[in-house]
Design a protein that fits this description.
Helices cover 38% and strands 18% of the residues. By secondary structure, it is of the alpha/beta class. The chain has one domain: Acetylglutamate kinase-like (Carbamate kinase), CATH 3.40.1160.10. Strands 4-3-5-2-1-6-10-11-9 form a nine-stranded mixed beta sheet, with helices on both faces. Strands 7-8 form a two-stranded antiparallel ribbon. β1, α1 (28-43) and β2 (47-52) form a beta-alpha-beta unit. It starts with 7 loop residues before the first strand and ends with a strand.
Length: 238
């Protein structure tokens, strides 16, 4: 078994990556595909955390634009991430991966609260951790939650899984066929170029805490495996 370059990682998974063909809800085939990504990481011996978004169920920012109170809309979005987390937990457990879901807001009936020491213990004994409900605060994205959790648990890398985009480009490759892909970027370059890789709060947090970011396509069946081994995949921001 090859030796992984990174011993502990956080995978940031957008809600959009889980959506069904109709554009909403959870596609179970995709869910199983993502679970196999995590299994590949565990097979390498990597301690894994996963942060899930909720955009396939609810988008708080869009609801706010239509007149809903932003704080209320964002809390609804946090609950959407819990739905995705529980679905992913079930998919992981069905393939033999022991999993715990921790939430940033109390929902004791279905998940543990996020407690740092408990999270570290789960990782140490080989359990996969799914972090749901973002940071527990409105106006904060799940990108920021991913950067925060990666920092808190001492992750060696943050894996940013994109839906149908295999890295960072100077413009949208789905609209511009001549868009240039970056293999490597410095944190400040990504911030200054405003490439919309992730929100600036999350990117700044990774920069301040020296957490490298690898941006790749979630639909690449070996993307997580290659990234954890240090092989060339997607775009590295460090």
């Amino acid at each position: 078994m090859p030796e992984p370059r990174y011993k502990r990682a956080v995978l940031k998974l957008s809600g959009e990556a889980l959506k069904s063909e109709g554009g909403w809800g959870i596609d179970l085939t995709t869910l199983r595909f993502v679970a196999n990504h995590v299994k590949q990481a565990r097979d390498l011996g990597v301690e894994m955390g996963v942060v899930v978004g909720g955009g396939n169920i609810w988008r708080g920012a869009e609801a706010a634009k239509l007149g809903m109170d932003r704080t209320t809309a964002d809390y609804a979005g946090m609950l959407a991430t819990v739905i995705n987390a529980l679905a992913l937990q079930d998919a992981l457990e069905k393939i033999g991966i022991v999993t715990r879901t921790q939430t940033a807001i109390p929902i004791d009936t279905v998940a543990e609260p996020f407690i740092h020491r408990r999270a570290m213990r789960h990782l140490e004994v080989g359990r996969v951790l799914i972090f749901a409900a973002g940071t527990g605060n409105p106006y904060m994205t799940t990108d920021t939650a991913a950067a925060l959790r990666a920092t808190e648990i001492g992750a060696n890398v943050l894996l940013m899984a994109k839906n149908g985009v295999d890295g960072v480009y100077d413009s949208d490759p789905r609209k511009n066929p001549k868009a240039k892909k970056f293999e490597k970027l410095a944190y400040l370059e990504a911030l200054n170029l405003r490439l919309q890789v992730m929100d600036t709060t999350a990117l700044s947090m990774c920069m301040d805490n020296r957490v490298p970011i690898i941006v790749f396509d979630i639909h690449d069946p070996t993307g997580v495996h290659k990234a954890l081994l240090g092989e060339t995949v997607g775009t590295v921001i460090s």
